[in-house]
Amino acid sequence: RVTLKAPEIAENGNAVPVTVSVDSPMTDKDHVKALHIVADGNPNPGVASFTFTPLAGKCEVQLRVRMAQTQKIVCVAEMSDGTLWSAAREVKVTIGGCGG
Predict the structure, then answer these.
(1) pTM score, two decimals?
(2) What span, in angstroms and rounded, lies between the C-alpha atoms of 69 and 95?
């Protein structure tokens, strides 16, 4: 249910484009409550967290992530019924963006 779009190879880790969307009807009974994005190889792995309500209409975010090295980006969607859905993708970084 979670779709994660990111380049397979990032020439520069300073601004890696990432798009995350979750297939959800976004109704009162079935919607995304929160979306968490983590880059597991960064000094501070927690990249961003977003909260949603049914009023959002759909769950989709676009952002640029700073990445220190080749690593996995993991997205976890927390649903209104308490279930968790996730997706992950490895991104190869040729020039790190978090310094040495």
Answers:
(1) 0.89
(2) 7
